[in-house]
Specification:
It is elongated, with a radius of gyration of 53 Å. A hairpin with a 3-residue loop joins strand 19 and strand 20. The chain has 736 residues and is of the alpha+beta class. The N terminus is likely disordered. It is 41% helix and 23% strand. Strands 18-19-21-22-23-24-25-26 form an eight-stranded mixed β-barrel, surrounded by four helices.
Length: 736
């Protein structure tokens, strides 16, 4: 579009007009002079607007103004504001038809409302298009008059696009809010600045259980759980004071029927034009079921599924709280108990796991009766329990509670027509103020519990620092044991077994020794229990079996005296609990070439006590292969006589404790003589262990004992010394 001097150099499509540029008191040069006496209206011949006033209006008024021929609809004149508003030059705009500005040409009659003929003029709402193509909503105030026989209309145009957009938005917002208010799935309430309920939607009324009329008579605090009221009022006050734009709270509500409802509330404030509070909008979501689900998950995370007691995680959390409280208050006293049920495995193995679970639940109930409400009783898993005795008046109160626990567990349990008894070994930590972490206390209570179990079932042991050092020593030994296998630090020693009838060596018992790089030679009694606990015993037993068989094969190749030598080997109970124990045993015999008949396995009662029918089957398979079996340490167990009938033993070994004192104690003498008679009647060989004097050897020979071993004959010796013995001319015959 061409620009001219009347457009002030503004490009086409520019926005709202600036002030009308003119000489003060003068009309624009393009506006024609009008004779007021010549003006006549179309109706009465009178001029509806004095022309001098009209000219002054064009010159002085900053509004967008158009002068239109009512017949031809041609724009006769316009002011500078109109040119700027529509984006056309004045010359272009004056030459245009009014309909060219209309978005909808059919709106043209609206520019000439009937009331425009009156003295006050008339209004019309239409849409105009500007030079840049943009469409604007406008209000047109029209005034009609006649001039020189021409019907003219003066139009003052006001842009109302933004105001109408705002109104439409407000109307849409009101409609949307009304729809949301009525149909939302969550509660919405309108609350006045004093906290009274102005209105509430159906969902909110349903959540709280009141009628709408009832709820309108309430203050918002009337249906909030009492403990949450003060906090809610504080948030409302901060919102009203302008310190918050909104607030969100999760809290409890009380339904009309008294039921507790958990809700998540979001509140915002609507203010008046003067910024004074008008009303609150409160949105409420019922999260009761979510909260119940969360509570259930939290309960499952911190409680034992079987007994409903606290679990390890919750116990450690509360123990940590007790430690921190004790640090702040030196007068605060607490202690920790760690319980392990004695021989509980027998219940599971004999009656099944359902019976074991029922017994654990009953034990949990009895323990609960023994502790106070302030204490924490937890199940750590399996048959282990822990107790935090919180806020004691005196450390000795711990011992009273322990005594109650022992009495409670001493009462019989009745499960499926079975009468059972249970006891617990208890570790105790009293000196708690020196600890910084709950794990350290539980560790030391566990150490004390194991010491109690070593000292006998159903007893308790109080932890002291020496136990910790001993536990550290056990850990060091376990680490060294793992390295010992890799480094080849184990050795085999052998102790001869003597035939009392022929006074000659008929067998050798293989005994493992550990040549520790720092401690020297370590006996099996010091490291075998740790090896069993650490799960290393299977590898150690396999090493013993393989090396003993290899050495026996070597002896047989070199020495005629060793051809019929019987090799006794001690294997732990855990070796036989392995699924592939028999196959492993057979493979070692195949590789070394040793005949099964040249081996005798010494079995302890622990294997029989801890084993099951699978162990029995393995022993029978070994016996069928030709391996002989001996019951070791006979007389020290619980049911030795029944074992002799149930298991295919070839020999009995009398424990050395009876042999050492048989000549001084009549009771031990009776046991030795009884075992000798029992062996004879059952057709079993009897071996006396621990023979240390000539008198003991003579008496055993006199009473008909078959074999003996002990320091009187030989101490355990390395394989090289056995080879020296086999190389002597006398062979294995003893000459003393």
């Amino acid at each position: 579009m061409r620009q001219d001097e009347s457009s002030d150099g503004l490009a086409q499509g520019q926005g709202s007009a600036g002030p009308l540029e003119r000489e003060p008191g003068h009309a624009p040069e393009s506006f024609p002079a009008v004779n007021p006496t010549a003006c006549r209206s179309g109706n009465n011949g009178e001029c509806s607007l004095p022309c001098d006033l009209l000219a002054r209006a064009f010159a002085e008024h900053a509004a967008v103004m158009l002068l239109v021929d009512a017949q031809s609809l041609r724009i006769m004149d316009c002011n500078q504001s109109a040119a700027l508003y529509y984006g056309h030059s004045r010359s272009t705009l004056i030459a245009m038809d009014l309909r060219a500005l209309l978005v909808d040409p059919s709106d043209c009659p609206a520019h000439f409302p009937a009331e425009a003929l009156g003295s006050n003029g008339g209004n019309a709402s239409v849409r105009h298009r500007r030079a840049d193509g943009s469409v604007r909503d406008v209000e047109v105030y029209s005034s009609r008059f006649s001039h020189d026989g021409r019907d003219l209309q003066c139009c003052i145009v006001q842009d109302v696009t933004e105001s109408r957009r705002v109104k439409r938005r407000l109307l849409g917002s009101e409609q949307r809010f009304s729809t949301l208010f009525e149909h939302a799935g969550f509660g919405i309430a309108l609350i006045d600045p004093n906290g009274r309920i102005l209105d509430m939607n159906k969902a909110g009324v349903a959540i709280l259980g009141y009628s709408l009329n009832e709820i309108r008579a309430l203050h918002y605090s009337d249906y909030i759980y009492p403990d949450d009221v003060q906090r809610t009022k504080q948030f409302f006050h901060e919102l009203q004071a302008g310190r918050r734009d909104y607030f969100e709270l999760t809290k409890r509500y009380l339904r009309k029927d008294g039921a507790l409802v958990w809700g998540r509330q979001i509140v915002t404030l609507v203010r008046k034009e003067n910024d004074e509070p008008d009303y609150f909008i409160s949105m409420l979501e019922d999260i009761t079921e979510h909260r119940r689900a969360d509570d259930m998950l939290r309960h499952l995370a911190f409680h034992d599924a079987l007994t409903e007691l606290a679990n390890r995680a919750l116990f450690l959390d509360r123990l940590g709280t007790a430690i921190r409280r004790g640090k702040r208050n030196p007068d605060f006293i607490f202690s920790v108990l760690f319980l392990d049920l004695d021989r509980f495995k027998l219940v599971n193995d004999s009656l099944g796991h359902p019976a074991g679970d029922a017994m654990l639940c009953e034990i949990a109930a009895r323990l609960t009766e023994c502790v106070r409400d302030s204490d924490t009783l937890a199940r750590f898993g399996g048959d282990e329990f822990a107790i935090l005795l919180d806020g004691l008046s005196d450390p000795l109160e711990t011992l009273k509670i322990i005594e109650r626990i022992r009495k409670a567990l001493a009462r019989p349990f009745f499960l499926d027509d079975h009468e059972l008894f249970a006891g617990a070994s208890i570790g105790v930590v009293l000196d708690t103020e020196r600890y910084d972490s709950p794990e350290e206390i539980v560790r030391d209570a566990d150490i004390a519990m194991y010491r109690a179990k070593e000292n006998g079932n159903a007893v308790y042991e109080i932890f002291d620092s020496r136990m910790h050092e001993q536990a550290r020593e056990v850990l060091r030994m376990e680490t060294d044991l793992r390295k010992a296998l890799e480094r080849g630090e184990f050795e085999l020693y052998f102790q001869p077994i003597i035939s009392l009838r022929g006074n000659r060596i008929t067998g050798m018992e293989a005994l493992i020794r550990w040549r520790h790089p720092e401690r020297g030679l370590v006996s099996p009694g010091e490291f075998i229990p740790q090896a069993e606990e650490a799960g290393l015993i299977f590898d150690i037993d396999r090493w013993v079996l393989a090396n003993a068989c290899s050495i026996l094969d070597l002896w047989s190749e070199r020495y005629t005296a060793a051809h019929d030598l019987l090799l006794n080997i001690n294997l732990s109970a855990k070796y036989f609990l392995k699924r592939d124990a028999v196959d492993d045993f057979s493979e070692i015999l195949r590789v070394t070439g040793v005949r099964p008949s040249r081996l005798r396995l010494e079995i302890t009662e622990n294997l029989i006590l801890d084993g099951d029918e699978h162990v029995t089957g393995k022993l029978l398979k070994l016996r069928a292969m030709g391996v002989s079996l001996a019951l070791d340490d006979f007389g020290t167990g619980y049911s030795s006589l029944s074992y002799l009938v149930r298991y295919p033993f070839d020999a009995i070994k009398i424990d050395r404790s009876f042999i050492l004192s048989m000549l001084e104690k009549s009771g031990d003498l009776a046991i030795v003589q009884s075992v000798l008679a029992l062996g004879k009647n059952l057709g079993l060989e009897v071996v006396a262990e621990g023979v240390e004097t000539l008198e003991q050897a003579a008496k055993l020979r006199e009473w008909g004992c078959d074999f003996a071993q002990g320091y009187f004959y030989f101490r355990p010796m390395p394989a090289s010394d056995v080879m020296d013995l086999l190389a002597k001319p006398a062979g294995l015959v003893l000459t003393y």
